[in-house]
Amino acid sequence: MVDLKGQYEKIKSEVDQGISEVINQTAFINGGAVKDFAKELEAYLGVKHVIPCGNGTDALQIALMALGLEAGDEVICPDFTFVATAEVAGVLGLKSVLVDVHPDSFTIDLDSAEKALSPKTKAIVPVHLFGQCANMDEVMDFAKKHNLYVIEDTAQAIGADYKGKTGTFKAGTMGEFGTTSFFPSKNLGCYGDGGALFTNDDNLASIARQIVNHGMGQQYDYERVGVNSRLDTIQAAILQAKLPHLDAYNSARRAAADAYDQGLSGMEEITTPYRAPYSTHAFHQYTLKLNKGNRDELIKHLESKGVPCKVYYPQPLHQFSAYHDAARPESDFKVTNELCAQVFSLPMHTELSQDDTNYIVEAVKSFFKS
């Protein structure tokens, strides 16, 4: 599904030099590369503060901690997403309230969110799924109307542009916080775990910086309860080498998506990814809907031809025991239930060639001809 080795070989000298400098300096925790990378990412995103941390899940948790939510408060998030979006609320004694998504963009459905509101609702987490922004104008208006905090889950869409009513903004820079993961397969990924929070709020940034380092303000002065979640200096050096290439990486992904779209156009058996007019698409995944045919058989067929194929996500979060709410009927999650039965993802990464996409397209087509 990804070709990290091919990507590394193109920037090997930059990555190796960065790692070597960290080892020579022996500043393995909170070294210079961490601070420099944060500044460089701030400049790229056009945001005032980037707070690096240990991973993307921690970033979501730290954002909720920094907002000062209390046990029992409710956080709205989409049902169709990776579990990290919902699990962090439970870790903090909050409640994740799952809502349905749009059938085209797969992002949060605010009509569904409206029905899920309660006096305990304090925050909403729009997920910029598969590389495309949620409709943030609508999300921000909804949040303002209901006095909610907004935490953008940007783990799959770093570098995407949101074209809003008041200008163009990078994904993750519009809410109280944006969060991201630097998991190796992400559009901007390191060679281990890593994550970050983004915010334009000076006070929230100060609080988050304390939380990531045991809640410490001045040395050995613990102003609040925190965690130990720091971006490793070696990983920061790797991210420094990759960040200047991020726009090119996303362009390569869009080019591969264009080739898929062209090759698969006109097929009634599948629906190619929707591209919203309000967002560029970073194509973390190229995810289609299967309208006709057996998905398991399609996956077996593709794998027999050497084409990896994955399902993101095969089961709605609300159906897992950890997130099940007996009071919510299945009709509340109609779209998510349908998507989990329909979606499948083709290989998507920076190293896909025209020959690769041609071969994959023909492999998909051949399934429906057999």
Please characterize this protein's 3D structure:
With 370 residues, the protein is of the alpha/beta class. It has a seven-stranded mixed beta sheet, with helices on both faces. Strand 4, helix 7 and strand 5 form a beta-alpha-beta unit. The relative contact order is 0.16. The mean pLDDT is 97.
Short description:
This protein is α/β, with parallel strands linked by helices and 370 residues long.
Secondary structure layout plus pairing:
Layout: H1 4-10, H2 12-25, H3 32-45, E1 49-53, H4 56-66, E2 74-78, H5 84-91, E3 95-99, H6 110-116, E4 121-124, H7 136-146, E5 149-153, E6 161-164, E7 167-170, E8 177-181, E9 195-199, H8 202-212, H9 233-242, H10 246-264, E10 270-271, E11 286-290, H11 295-304, H12 334-342, E12 343-346, H13 354-369
Helix pairs in contact: 2-9, 3-9, 4-5, 4-8, 10-13
Query: What's the number of extended β-strand segments?
Result: 12
Going by CATH, the homologous superfamily of the largest domain would be Type I PLP-dependent aspartate aminotransferase-like (Major domain)
Q: What letter string, H or E per element, gives the SSE order?
A: HHHEHEHEHEHEEEEEHHHEEHHEH
Give the CATH class of the largest domain. Answer: Alpha Beta
How large, in whole angstroms, is the Cα Rg? 21 Å
The proportion of strand residues reads 5-15%
The largest sheet, given as strand count, sense and whether it forms a barrel, is: 7 strands, mixed
Structural category is: alpha/beta
The name of the CATH architecture of the largest domain is 3-Layer(aba) Sandwich
CATH domain fold name of the largest domain: Aspartate Aminotransferase, domain 2
User: In what order do the strands lie side by side in the largest sheet?
Assistant: 1-9-8-5-4-2-3
What general outline do the C-alpha atoms trace? Answer: globular
Count of individual helical segments: 13
Distance between the termini: 25 Å
Number of domains: 2
Low-confidence stretches: none
Helix content: 25-40%
Average pLDDT score: 97
